[in-house]
Design goal:
With 111 residues, the protein is of the alpha+beta class. It has helices spanning 16-20, 67-76, 92-95; strands at residues 3-5, 26-28, 33-35, 55-57. It contains three helices and four strands.
Length: 111
């Protein structure tokens, strides 16, 4: 089993989880983080660190976010690994809990 990052990370992108990950399995996209399921050791240290409750055990992903299981694997394959915490976006607080953010997901870094 692995942990995954869900929809509420989009545009929030807090990085408290990165600091506690013992195997550096987080990958950074333009406006969210993902977990590489092949690297996650299921230690559960990241889940309680997320201030917006965007991290779930794979078997506890809300039904409306099941697509994020495959999305984490897909995006981790192309995004850079992140091992140190960076500041969250200035407007992160206002995005916490906003529904239907999947349409705001940025897959590619700006050129």
């Amino acid at each position: 089993m692995t942990f995954i990052v869900g929809e509420n990370c989009i545009k929030c992108k807090h990085m408290d989880c990165v600091e506690v990950c013992p195997v550096d399995c987080f990958y950074e996209g333009p406006n969210m983080l993902v977990i590489n399921p092949d690297e996650c050791i299921d230690c559960a240290l990241c889940e309680p660190e997320c201030p917006v409750d965007a991290i779930f055990a794979e078997d506890e992903v809300p039904e409306d976010q099941l697509q994020f299981i495959a999305l984490n694997a897909e995006l981790a394959a192309g995004w850079p690994n992140i091992t140190e915490m960076k500041p969250a976006p200035i407007d992160a607080e206002q995005w916490d809990g906003v529904p239907n953010k999947i349409n705001l997901l940025e897959r590619d870094w700006p050129a």
